[in-house]
Amino acid sequence: QQEKEDLQRKLKLSEHLSQTASKSEATLAPSKNIDLEMRQQQCKLKNSNNEIAKQLATVKSLKKEVQEKEERIRELQAKISRLERDLNMKRHLIEDLRSRLKTSQQNETTSNDALESLERKVKALAEDCLNKKAFIDSLKQRLNEATKEKSEYEQMYHKAKDELEKKDLKLTNLENKITESECAMTKLETTASQQLCDLAKQSEQALETMQKKLLLNKDKVEEFTTFVKALTRELQHSIQELRTKIKQAKKMREVRAYKKGLSQESVQLAASILNVSTTDLEEILEVEDDEETAKTKMESEKDKEWLQYVQKLLEAQFPFASYLMDAILEKLNEKKKLVEEYSSLPKHTV
């Protein structure tokens, strides 16, 4: 409808320009050259008037088509008003259309302002034509401007025609969609009720199975953590036992070597001097030095740190399997080295 009004305004402007041009032709001074040029220009104006008349006829036919489509649109709006009662879910689409209407109204105001400015310009041009009737050059320039405007109007006419064809296609598509939506709504109502019942049953069964699986997974995780903790403790305990055995074997070897270097009499003499028995003297000789005690403390601290590290890995987020494997392999390698060291000691020392 807005494009129709714009075309009517533009046709009025073109008629006004043709009238002003015909008035300017009547008041020109009589001369041969001017008559020839004016005849040529009159022919051009007649041609343009004929074209404008054709365009007016086409615009009238388009008006009739638009009126028919408006009646069709009214019928469709009546159908849509009936469907709106059942289609509450599509209100957000109406809000979008309202926002588009606001933007179109703003564009209409801007276009109206532009048309008013164009009307003012046309009035100014008409006054200039009345004041400058004697100058043919100005008439030629204005005729050129009129031809340019005519080409623009023709382009706008073609655009309006194309847009009307597009709107026809949209109207047919809307009619088809409305009929399809009416059929689909009835089907959706029946299928949705059935699907909701099935989904409710399936969701209840799935929740029960998921709860059972979660309980089983929790039990498995607890068993795994207890297994890992017991394994680490056993590893640490076995490593500590191997260390103590190696230390005892080394001490026994040193004591026996010391006893071989000393004679029985010197041992008894040292025991009598210290006022202790020979067995007590052997225990005194087996006392650890400061370096050994520091070393044992360091090893025990490392074992504690290792246990804390394993505990942190178990409490950490996934994935931690590779880090846990590295930590246990490190301890197993240490145990392997201790076993090799213990087995390398002579059997008579053990």
TrEMBL record:
Gene Ontology BP, a term: centriole-centriole cohesion
Keywords for the protein's UniProt record, in alphabetical order: Coiled coil
Compositionally biased intervals (Basic and acidic residues): 1-15
Entry superkingdom: Eukaryota
UniProt key word Iron: no
Bias (Polar residues): 16-25
Chain positions covered by the region annotation Disordered: 1-34
Protein name: CNTLN protein
Species the sequence originates in: Indicator maculatus (spotted honeyguide)
